Amino acid sequence: QKEVEQDPGPLSVPEGAIVSLNCTYSNSAFQYFMWYRQYSRKGPELLMYTYSSGNKEDGRFTAQVDKSSKYISLFIRDSQPSDSATYLCAMSILTSYGKLTFGQGTILTVHP
Amino acid sequence: GAVVSQHPSRVICKSGTSVKIECRSLDFQATTMFWYRQFPKQSLMLMATSNEGSKATYEQGVEKDKFLINHASLTLSTLTVTSAHPEDSSFYICSARTRRTSAPKAETQYFGPGTRLLVL
User: In 3-state terms, what secondary structure has residue A83?
Assistant: First the structure.
């Protein structure tokens, strides 16, 4: 069993839709949770980071963490074609010196 | 802020040659830099962790003598692929972690744009 599981998709939605991306994890030591967006042939770009259970909102993006269920989500409201990319969840433990464990990535396409 | 650059962005080389890839944190000092490789439509695979002034720590299965990492300063790390072969062709991405001590930013990484290596 992988430490972090993410549905690879692909996910295709119409413009304006609400997108839900999810990851589950098995290691309860994970303390920090991040979402990255990666466009084709580019490096990942940090979208959201959090270290506590609950919701964190930034513009059209909301990150949700449920440590009791070992489940994190990223919601994208009013999705745009420019949101089409691969979304990677990542997490780390307190003493990992920054080492991240990534999910497999979800390929998202938002069509006009 | 938190910009990481990589050079070159793309390189094509002949089998048997060595290739050096640079990773720089442009506007912050990085306590740690990480090197990943990524195959098409797959997630990032951590190759090694590099701390300034010390030897890199390699992940299991990564050949130390093939992938040489040097972290000479708080803003520069290099990855040298020695005696490259076609199976080394991949997308190599570096990331840098800031010196900020306040969580959670201390645990976040900022990624470079990647270097696409093609070995013929």
Answer: helix
